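Q: What residues go here?
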């Protein structure tokens, strides 16, 4: 028997996705990220450990969750004491109203493959495949390399959704098994990137330059347009200039900020970023900056 691959913490497997690459896709989301984007729409992915989400409006205060909590971290009204909670998931398991959800479970590459294989007819019919996302999926490079290899061995097309904030050696390990990269570019100005994500973008842009030299036709660039961060022609224009200087990818997508992460932050019990999505008029102006690159 082959050696069992290292496990990775999976927080969701989303089927019939049409936003994570071409065709219908199954997206495997891994936990853990080395960026802290203020607007993150998957804040439950940032911590590599399991986390508990709670939706108070669904709670009927029945007390079932409290009765099954071995750490006595849950009160009769459904409130959770984070100092006592071990994220074992029993309260979510027994919740009668889907008011609690444990986010994160360990899976091996083989288990992940078994989860995505049943969707093969949809991939074949639409030109789709499997996408691995996060969090930052490339932080789990042993799992990722093994999973992508298994997908190829079983005839599945693959895509990797990454922010690129990892050593280039991680890219080298998966290049033979990644058919497509969905590469996030937040901005070019380093100070702006640090203010918005908590990290420099030097490594991110350096990795992108290296990828563009050999794999430009298999890179889709995704730029989140975030109010108060990069929603202006100056910063988005710098992104366009970057690709004029270093190579044209297969596609560039500008993605308007959406408010999905706001509800998730509330469910995690923390205050998060909030803003109105950019207008259609602004998105049209910013998209026009890339007309010569499309």
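A:
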């Amino acid at each position: 028997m082959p050696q069992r691959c290292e496990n990775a913490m999976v927080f969701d497997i989303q089927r019939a996705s049409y936003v994570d690459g071409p065709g219908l896709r199954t997206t495997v989301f891994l936990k853990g990220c080395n960026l802290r984007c203020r607007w993150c729409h998957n804040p439950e992915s940032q911590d590599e450990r399991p986390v508990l989400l709670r939706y108070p409006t669904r709670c009927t205060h029945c007390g079932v969750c409290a009765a099954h909590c071995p750490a006595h971290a849950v009160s009769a009204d459904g409130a959770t004491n984070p100092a006592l909670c071990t994220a074992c998931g029993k309260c979510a398991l027994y919740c009668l109203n889907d008011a609690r959800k444990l986010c994160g479970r360990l899976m091996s590459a083989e288990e992940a493959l078994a989860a995505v294989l049943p969707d093969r007819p949809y991939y074949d019919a639409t030109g789709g495949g499997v996408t691995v996302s996060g969090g930052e999926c490339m932080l789990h490079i042993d799992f990722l390399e093994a999973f992508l290899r298994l997908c190829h061995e079983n005839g599945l097309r693959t895509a990797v959704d990454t922010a690129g904030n990892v050593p280039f050696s991680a890219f080298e390990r998966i290049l033979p098994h990644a058919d497509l990269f969905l590469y996030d570019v937040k901005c070019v100005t380093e100070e702006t990137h640090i203010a918005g994500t908590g990290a420099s973008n030097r490594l991110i842009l350096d990795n992108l330059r290296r990828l563009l030299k050999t794999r430009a036709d298999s890179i889709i660039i995704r730029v989140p347009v975030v109010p108060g961060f990069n929603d202006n022609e100056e910063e988005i224009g710098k992104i366009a200039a970057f690709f004029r200087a270093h190579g044209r990818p297969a596609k560039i997508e500008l993605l308007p900020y959406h408010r999905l992460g706001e509800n998730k932050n509330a469910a995690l019990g923390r205050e998060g970023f909030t803003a109105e999505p950019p207008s259609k008029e602004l998105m049209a102006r910013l998209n026009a900056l890339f007309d010569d690159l499309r």
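A: Context that may help when evaluating the design: The CA atoms of residues 212 and 247 lie 6 Å apart. The chain has a mean pLDDT of 93.
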